[in-house]
Predict the structure.
Amino acid sequence: GAGVSQTPSNKVTEKGKYVELRCDPISGHTALYWYRQSLGQGPEFLIYFQGTGAADDSGLPNDRFFAVRPEGSVSTLKIQRTERGDSAVYLCASSLGPTGSQETQYFGPGTRLLVL
Amino acid sequence: RKEVEQDPGPFNVPEGATVAFNCTYSNSASQSFFWYRQDCRKEPKLLMSVYSSGNEDGRFTAQLNRASQYISLLIRDSKLSDSATYLCVVGRSASKIIFGSGTRLSIRP
């Protein structure tokens, strides 16, 4: 079946602009994660959804970052007033949920964000 | 100190060699352990879960040492296609899933 998809695959924007990154998880997966990965680093946790609600948003770096998942499927990560330091690959992952950390996460191909 | 630490490498070994790398974690409440593989400019993919008793999947063997708080990955008879970055992943809860920075492995002909 279809895996996790993310759009756009690449996004170039100017400092101060607003961007939205979209994630389509695997059908039936209730858990959805957003990560940010910089060069030479592992994925860094941003936010976790179980169903429609953000169960843990402790990884969001500041209030410029926000994510929603209104119908418990597609999620959008929103970044306001982008800064050059926001440049990274933004990865989305989903898992069957909700049995916690034991489950396999399936990652999307990521969105490469470049803020000029 | 990072919660999950890995030797970044790169490990450069000839085809057919055996290679092993470790990952240490600092939180003793950690419950789940995984190795993910990430190819250049691709997303991470699960290689194998790591169980307390140790487990093997073909040429890959993973071990967990709770007392010393490390996990290991052993690759036997390495192939050119094993060249990748190997990410150690440690979980405490559904959201507390921590990725290491990865160990780069390069297999040469």
